[in-house]
């Protein structure tokens, strides 16, 4: 029986000829995965595969991406059911994605240590609103209404939690789930 997955690839630059959606999909198809599709041009690949341990699946995909395309970045995989449940929990109640409320989800790699408490961020324009333990994801609201002064939230997260993370806009997470369900 097949399971639907989303691979969230870190460090994808669509302008790099080795990081185009068609090449990324080709690597996944070469691994024998079915129903491979991309979501946007920023390293989001959905696919079907036999049920497998996520850490082993992440390593297998990352080795293939590095070997075939020279992509050294991280690969974070989530099952469709995990992402669907995250959306159903409505972690941003009453908030809508916009300039002053840019909703983000920062996924930790499987095996990464969950925080004992929510991290404090020194910039009041970036606020962690929760950590969803089942999906292993930080949920944050960023005020980017002043383009000349956007908080450097991603660098702060990486300094605090290391490079085994990747961030997506909440709208992108919603699009990934929709693609997994189509």
From TrEMBL:
The lineage of its organism: Bacteria, Bacillati, Actinomycetota, Actinomycetes, Micrococcales. PANTHER family: BLL4334 PROTEIN (PTHR36439), DUF1697 DOMAIN-CONTAINING PROTEIN (PTHR36439:SF1). It comes from the Bacteria. This is Uncharacterized protein (DUF1697 family). InterPro entries: DUF1697 (IPR012545). It comes from Georgenia muralis.
């Amino acid at each position: 029986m097949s399971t639907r997955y989303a691979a969230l690839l870190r460090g994808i630059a669509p302008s790099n000829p080795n990081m185009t959606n068609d090449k990324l999909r080709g690597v996944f198809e070469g691994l024998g995965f079915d129903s491979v599709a991309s979501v946007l041009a920023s390293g989001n690949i959905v696919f079907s595969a036999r049920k497998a341990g996520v850490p082993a699946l992440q390593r297998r995909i990352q080795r293939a991406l590095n070997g075939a395309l020279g992509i050294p970045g991280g690969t974070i995989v989530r099952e469709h059911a995990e992402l669907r449940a995250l959306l159903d929990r409505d972690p941003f109640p009453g908030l809508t994605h916009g300039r002053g409320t840019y909703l983000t989800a920062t996924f930790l790699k499987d095996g990464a240590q969950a925080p004992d408490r929510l991290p404090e961020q020194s910039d009041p324009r970036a606020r962690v609103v929760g950590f969803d333990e089942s999906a292993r994801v930080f949920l944050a609201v960023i005020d980017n209404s002043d383009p000349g002064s956007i908080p450097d939230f991603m660098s702060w997260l990486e300094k605090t939690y290391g490079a085994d993370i990747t961030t997506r806009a909440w709208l992108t997470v919603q699009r990934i789930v929709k693609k997994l369900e189509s």
